[in-house]
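ok trying this again, last paste got cut off
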Amino acid sequence: MSAIRTERLLNLLIALLNSRYGLRRSELRDKIYSTSAASDAAFSRMFERDKNDLRDFGFEVETVTDLGWSSDDPATTRYRIGKESNRLPDVELTPDEWTVLLLASQLWEQAALGPAATNAMRKLQASSGLADVELPAGVQPRIKPAGQAFEDLVAAMHAQHPVRFRYLAGSTRREEERVVEPWGLGSRFGQWYLVGHDRGRNAQRYFRLSRFTSAVSVLAKETFTPPVGFNVRAELDSLPELPLRSAVVDVREDRLLGLRKRSEPVASGHPEGRPDDGWDRLAVPYRDAELLGEELASYGPNAKVVEPKEIADAVQRRLTGAAAFLAAPLHSYAFSDGTPGKRARKRTSEDQLKRMLQLVPFLVHNQGLHIQDVADQFGITRKELENDLLILICSGLPQGYPDELLDIQWEDDHVFITQSLELNRPVRFTVDEACALLTGLETLNGLPELAEGSALESVTLKLMAAAGEEGLRAGALSGPEVGPDNTVNLEMIRSAISSGSQLHLVYLSAQKDSLSERDVDPLRLYSMDNTWYFEAYCHSAAGLRNFRLDRIEDLKPNGKPVSSPVKPDGGFPAKLFTPNDDDTLVTVQLTGRGVGLADDYYAERTAVLPDGGLVAEIRFGSTSWLPMFVAQHGGAVRILEPAVLAEASRDWIDAALAQYAS
C-alpha cells in the first residue's frame, strides 16, 4: 500500500464517516478517485479493494438504496459508514482497575503481543482517560517470550493462516515436517504448546514449541476456520504431565553446583561402570528430554550424558548444530544507524494508517504534548511522526473548504488538533489487542494479592463487553502461571523494600558456578513467568544486580538500613538485563529461529540478513558464560566479535563434542 493509497483510504474513510445520507459511486469517483482511476473498470476494482481494506481496519461500509430501486443501479446506490461503526465503547475504570490493567498490559513487554497491548492501552486512554495510579511494589510479573516461533504462530493464528515447521516427534525421535492449522497457544507445565489441526494426520495434535527444529513458515495464501468457541486452556487442562524420569550424567568435580543441588549421586555399582577420575556420576531428574538436553548442552565439556540415549542425542544435536553454524559463511551486512533501541520491525503502510487512526483520538485527548513525546508514545521516530502528520493535515472532506480538513498544528513543537472530522474516538480492539489484555488479566489470577480483590474480575468483565467478538477469540491464547514458588523469601524481600532494610544472602551464581555472600539494598521485585527476581544494590559488586529467588541459598535481614543512594531507573517493568556503557559490546549472528534473542537482550543495533536472520550488537557485563549461551541455542546464535569470544565458543563446543566422539 503506497503513501498515495494511504492518503486516499483516509480521505475515503473521512468522506463516508461524515456523510449522513451516503455518497454515490459517481460522487466518490469525482471527489476521491479522480486522479487514481483512469476508467470506470479501474475505479470499480480500486473501490472494491478499498472497501475491503476499510473492513480490515474495522469499518464496515454500508450500502444504502433508494426505496423501490435495485441495489445494482449505481445511480441510486449510496455508501456510508455509521458514526458508531466499530468505535470502542467508553470504558469507565476505577484507579484499582487501571492498576490491574497496567500490570496486565506490561506482561508482554518483550513478547509478541507487547505492541498490541500498548495500542490497546492507548485506545483506552483516548476513550476514558488514564487515572493517576501508583503501581504496587513487588508486583511486576512478565511473560517470557517463547522465541520467534511464538511470534510467528500468534500472527498466523489471528490471521487464520496455516503454518509449516519441522518438529522433533516425541514418539519416533525423528524430525518431521508438519503443516498445521493453529487453533491456540498456551502454557502448561512451564512449556508453551501449539494446539491445532495437523493436516498430514487429519487430526487435532499438540506441539511443544521446545521441539520445533526450524523457523515457522506462514502459508499466507491459505486460510482455515477454527472450531467455534475453542479454548486452549480447557484443551491443555486435559493434557497429562510427563512422567518424572532420571538421567545419568557425569559431571566434572567441583563444577555445576546448580545441577548438583537437584541431583543425587549414583551408586558405584551402576551397569555403565564408574566415572573417569576427576568426574562424579549423578542421577538428574527430568520430565522433558529436550529441556534437559538444552541445559546439558550449555555445560559443554563439563558434563557428559551416560544414559538415556534420547538425552545424549538431544545434547549432541544442539552441539552439532552450533558447530555447523560456527563454520558457516557470513553474509555481508550493514547496520542501518547507530541509534540504540529495540530490534526494528518492518513497517508497512497498513501500520501507518492504523497508527494514524490511533493518533487522532490520542491528540484530541492529549492537547499540547511535545512532538517528541508523541513520537515516543507511539514508538516511532520524530520524522515518521511528522510524515504521519503531513498526510493527516492534507486529509479531509473531498473537495471541501480549508475548515473541512483535519486541523493539526505543531510549529512550536507542541502538537494541537482542533478539527478531527469524526476520527476523535478510537476504533474497537483488534484480535491481537483483545488477546493481549484479556490473556494478561487471566494470567494475573495466579497472584493471590490480585486474585482476591474485586478489581481484577470487574475490569475483565468490562473489557470483555468492550471487546465484543474479538474478545471471544481471546480463548485461543493462555498464559503461564506467574505465582511464586518460594513465598517466604518473596515476603521477606517485599517487607525489606517497604521498610528500607538491608538483606544478607548466600547466592548461587550460575554463570560463575560459585556461591557468594552479599549484603544488598533491595529495590523491587518482578517475575518472568513463575521465576521471580529482585533488583538490589549489591555492596560487594558496588552496583545494581538482579538475583533469582530460586538461587538464594540463605536469606535474612542483617539489621542495617539501606545505605546506597542508587535507585531503580524508574522504567516499568524492570529490565532483566541492564546494559552499561563499560560492558563488552558483542556482535552476534542470529538465525531466523533465534532473532527474538535480539529483543530479549536489548540489542543496540541490528542488521537484517537475506535469509531472515539478524546481526545484532549487544552489551554484556560478563562474557565468560557466552560459550554456554552459544551451545545452549544449538545453531541459532554465534559470536562474530570480539574474535577471542568467538574462538572461546568454538573451543567450548569442540571439546564437548569430542567427549561423545570418544
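PB: full thing came through this time. The CA atoms of residues 301 and 633 lie 16 Å apart.
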